[in-house]
Design brief:
By secondary structure, the protein is of the alpha/beta class. The protein is built from 6 helices and 5 strands, in the order ααβββααβαβα. It has a 5-stranded mixed sheet. The longest helix is centred in the N-terminal third of the chain and has 15 residues.
Length: 174
């Protein structure tokens, strides 16, 4: 959604004038369709395990919160946002880690005390605990996750990662 709404939110930064053009109208129309079309979100069941699927691109991070209600994994929530300032300069590894941490902070009320499987298309993150030379940002991220949640990180190929769309929409021309 962050990608779809960028032409609208970018207009808010210019305090001198407000201008509504074709890009803004297209973004508005696409947002209306995205928010009113399936898949419909399910109500979270706190007794079931969660799956968090994350992705990061050069411009945004995104995540999908899923649960299996007996008919396969279903979406409970979506989250995405544009990268801010220095975050755009993070390494791919750190952007992907940021996506995970952001998802856990956003859905903390659901994920605390639950069994959580994280799926990422950045394979090295599944070995994060075993990496010997972490930078301070990675240490803080790992400390936040380890001290608050019961989770495992697994690899999911990018082409099958549903969170991928949340981070790529900004780069798709209207």
């Amino acid at each position: 959604m962050a990608g779809l709404s960028a032409p609208l939110t970018d207009r808010l930064k210019d305090h001198d004038c407000f201008w509504w053009g074709e890009k803004q109208q297209n973004a508005f129309d696409q947002l209306k369709i995205a928010l009113t079309s399936p898949p419909v979100l399910h109500i979270s069941d706190l007794d079931r395990p969660y799956e968090v699927v994350t992705d990061a691109s050069d411009i945004a991070i995104g995540a999908v919160l899923l649960q299996d209600f007996g008919d396969g994994l279903q979406p409970v929530a979506y989250e995405s946002r544009k990268l801010h300032g220095a975050e755009k300069n993070y390494t791919v590894h750190d952007k992907e880690m940021l996506a995970i941490v952001h998802a856990f902070k956003t859905w903390r009320c659901y994920l605390t005390g639950a069994d959580v499987t994280v799926r990422t298309d950045h394979k090295s993150l599944q070995y994060l605990r075993a990496q010997p030379n972490l930078n301070p940002r990675q240490i803080r991220s790992l400390d936040f996750l380890e001290s608050n949640f019961h989770y495992t990180i697994t690899y999911k190929r990018g082409a099958t990662n549903i969170a991928d769309a949340l981070t790529r929409l900004l780069s798709i021309p209207p």
